Amino acid sequence: MKIKIRMKVIVALVVLMSVLLVFAPAVSVFAATQNITAISSSEAITTTKYEIRDGIIIRITAGTILSQFLANITNNINSPAIVYSGNTKVADSKRMATGMVLKVGKDFSYKIAVQGDASGDGVLTAMDLSKFYLNYTSVKALKSPYLEAVDMNYDGQITSLDLNQLKLLIVGLDVSE
Ligand SMILES: [Ca+2]
To answer: 37-43 — which CB contacts under 8 Å span 24+ positions?
Structure first.
């Protein structure tokens, strides 16, 4: 009796394995397709100079011109990469500003966060400091990507360290002018 049951189990396992072998190629093709989709959706562009975090491009320093920015972006899909300010296409000679959007083809878009530019004009002034303070004191919260723009040290938190760094940068720029 026990041997018969074992035989049945063995037969069942052999049948199961054959079924798996038959379907294995189909399964692996399916898995490969999924991987390709995942790679293309997360990496329509790549960059070594900047960083893409949750669809936001960070580590762009204030004063970066659009043509300089695009030179540091590698477009991985066969569609043009265009930067917009609202609905307007930004000219190559223009300064990058927080709130601009990089669109790659129809399906991909990335928000731009220029370091320290909380006001969205691409220049670091007392206005940015004011926006930082209002956010810091919970009077007026900064929204994404303006919030990401004031994470000066890119650690994912807004602290007094960011405030100090922003102050230094604004003072530094004022001195150099
Ligand atoms: Ca920070």
So the answer is: 40/76, 40/77, 41/108, 43/76
Tokens 């991985």: give the residue: 76
Domain boundaries, the chain: 1-42, 45-176
CA of 153 to the centre of ligand 1 (A): 5
Greatest Cα pair distance in the chain: 95
Residues with Cβ < 8 Å from 70, sequence gap 6 or more?
Answer: 81, 83, 92
Question: For 65-120, what is each residue's pLDDT tens digit?
Answer: 999 999 999 999 989 999 999 999 999 999 999 999 999 999 999 999 999 999 99
pTM, to two decimals? 0.74
Q: Ligand 1 centre from 84 Cα, in Å?
A: 27
Beta carbons of 120 and 127 less than 8 angstroms apart: no
- For residue 174, the CA-to-ligand 1 centroid distance in Å is 23
CA atoms within 13 A on the CB side of 158: 21
Asked whether the CA dihedral 56, 61, 63, 66 is positive or negative, the reply is negative
